[in-house]
TrEMBL record:
<dbReference type="InterPro" id="IPR022414">
    <property type="entry name" value="ATP-guanido_PTrfase_cat"/>
</dbReference>
<dbReference type="Pfam" id="PF00217">
    <property type="entry name" value="ATP-gua_Ptrans"/>
</dbReference>
<keyword id="KW-0808">Transferase</keyword>
<dbReference type="GO" id="GO:0004111">
    <property type="term" value="F:creatine kinase activity"/>
</dbReference>
<comment type="similarity">
    <text>Belongs to the ATP:guanido phosphotransferase family.</text>
</comment>
<dbReference type="InterPro" id="IPR022415">
    <property type="entry name" value="ATP-guanido_PTrfase_AS"/>
</dbReference>
<feature type="binding site">
    <location>
        <begin position="27"/>
        <end position="31"/>
    </location>
    <ligand>
        <name>ATP</name>
    </ligand>
</feature>
<dbReference type="InterPro" id="IPR014746">
    <property type="entry name" value="Gln_synth/guanido_kin_cat_dom"/>
</dbReference>
<comment type="function">
    <text>Catalyzes the specific phosphorylation of arginine residues in a large number of proteins. Is part of the bacterial stress response system. Protein arginine phosphorylation has a physiologically important role and is involved in the regulation of many critical cellular processes, such as protein homeostasis, motility, competence, and stringent and stress responses, by regulating gene expression and protein activity.</text>
</comment>
<dbReference type="GO" id="GO:0005615">
    <property type="term" value="C:extracellular space"/>
</dbReference>
<feature type="binding site">
    <location>
        <position position="92"/>
    </location>
    <ligand>
        <name>ATP</name>
    </ligand>
</feature>
<feature type="binding site">
    <location>
        <position position="126"/>
    </location>
    <ligand>
        <name>ATP</name>
    </ligand>
</feature>
<dbReference type="InterPro" id="IPR000749">
    <property type="entry name" value="ATP-guanido_PTrfase"/>
</dbReference>
<protein>
    <recommendedName>
        <fullName>Protein-arginine kinase</fullName>
        <ecNumber>2.7.14.1</ecNumber>
    </recommendedName>
</protein>
<feature type="domain" description="Phosphagen kinase C-terminal">
    <location>
        <begin position="24"/>
        <end position="255"/>
    </location>
</feature>
<dbReference type="GO" id="GO:1990424">
    <property type="term" value="F:protein arginine kinase activity"/>
</dbReference>
<dbReference type="GO" id="GO:0046314">
    <property type="term" value="P:phosphocreatine biosynthetic process"/>
</dbReference>
Amino acid sequence: MSLQDFISEALSPWTKKAGPDSDIVLSSRIRLARNLEEYKFPLLASMEESYAVSKHIGEALTQQEFQEVGPLELVRMDELKTNEKRVLVEKHLISPHLADQSKYGAVLLDKEEAVSIMVNEEDHLRIQCLWPGFQLEKGLQTANAIDDWIEGLLTYAFDEKRGYLTSCPTNVGTGLRASVMMHLPALAMTQQLNRILPAINQLGLVVRGIYGEGSEALGNLFQISNQITLGKSEEDIVEDLRGVVLQLIQQERAARNMLLDHSRLQLEDRVSRSYGILCHSRLIESKEATQRLSDVRLGIDLGLIQGLSATILNELMILTQPGFLQQYAGDVLSSNQRDERRATLIRERMKLEQEKHD
C-alpha cells in the first residue's frame, strides 16, 4: 500500500468489521513499549543515533514478513507534510508526539491498519494492535505474537528484575498499555460520569479523551486504560481493565434504559434535533459536530433513528477533523472554511446514507 491509501480513507479496514458490545465499546487497543539494547533511548539520543535506530528497525521489519499480519509499509515522518501527519493522528495510526516531536520517527502499517508499529516515539518501538468492539484478549494475543516475531529479529532492553526498560517509568515492566474507546452518552446525559470517572482513577486506571493523553473527551468518547505496568502480568492488567469496562457497559445500558423509560420524549427530541442540524446546517464547528454525531449514534443504537449505519459516527468523527477536511480540500483552510466544508460533508454523507436505505 502507498501513503495515499492510508490517508485517503477515513475508516481503516479493521473498523468496518463487527465486534462484541460495539454499541458502547468502539475499539480495543493493546500497545507494547519496547527499546533496543544497543542504542540510547529516544529522549537522550542524538539525531545520528535516532537515524541509525530508524534505519535498523525499518530494514529488519520490512525485509521479513510476519505471516499473521502480512507485509508492513514503512512511512517516515520526515517525508510527510504536516497535514499528512495530522491525518494519521486523526486515524489513531500514530501519536501526536510522533507527528510533532520525534527525531527520525516512522511508522510501520499493515494493509488493514490494525497493526501500527511506531519507531522513535518516546521509545524505540510502540507496537499497537487495534480490534473492533470489546476484544482485549484477542488484541493481546496478536500483540504478543508480533512482539515475539520482532524479538527474534532485534535485541530488546530487558532487566530480569524490572522487565522491559522504557523511557517513562510508568511503562517499565510489561510495557503494556491496554485501552478501550467507549461511547458513554447516557452516563453523560444523566450526569453519572462525574461520580464514575474519579472512582475509575482510584482503581489504577486512567480516563482520557479521544486522542489519548491531554486530549478532550469529544462526542462522549472516552479512552480508558491501565496506568501501572510494573509488578503485574499482562494477563492481570487486561483482566483488571476488562472488569471495569464490563461494569461501565452495564451502567451505560442501564442509563440508556432509564432514559427510554422516564425521559423518552426528551431523548427523542434531542436525537431528532441533532439529526436535523447535521442534515441541514451550513456551518458547524468541530465540537458541536461531534456532540451531534454522538446523539445520532445513540439514536441509532436505541432504534430511535432508522436507516443509518452505526459506523457513521466512527467515519464522520474522523472525516470532519481539520486534517481530513484539508486533505480533501487540497489546501489550508481557515476556521470558517473548515466549518462550512464540515457541514457540507456531513449533509452529503447523511444524504448518501439515506439513499442507500431507501
